[in-house]
Design brief:
Elements: E1 5-8, H1 10-22, H2 26-41, E2 49-51, E3 55-60, E4 63-70, E5 75-83
Parallel strand pairs: 1-5
Antiparallel strand pairs: 2-3, 3-4, 4-5
Helix pairs in contact: 1-2
Length: about 80
């Protein structure tokens, strides 16, 4: 297992905060964000499904994130988040 540092782009952090504020179930949003962090921290390039522009998409209901992986740096950067 290869460990990755998970970084939330500022725009994604802002989106997550807004989703949390508007959520009927804030605990579900919190737990999903934690699950995403935990999942991407281990073998990030293998997580989720391919998305356009060499990105990947990962879902943890009720959240969906788009992320990029820098394998040389061992960084998974979350670029956006929304609900589905």
């Amino acid at each position: 297992m290869t460990r990755y540092t998970v970084v939330w782009h500022q725009e994604a952090r802002d989106e997550l905060a807004q989703l949390w504020i508007e959520a009927q179930d804030r605990n579900a949003v919190t737990l999903a964000a934690r699950a995403i962090d935990r999942d991407l921290a281990a073998d990030a390039p293998e997580k989720g499904v391919p998305a356009p522009d060499a990105l990947r998409q990962l879902t943890a209901p009720p959240l969906r994130v788009l992320f990029a992986v820098s394998e040389p740096d061992r960084v998974a950067k979350i670029l956006s988040v929304d609900t589905f």
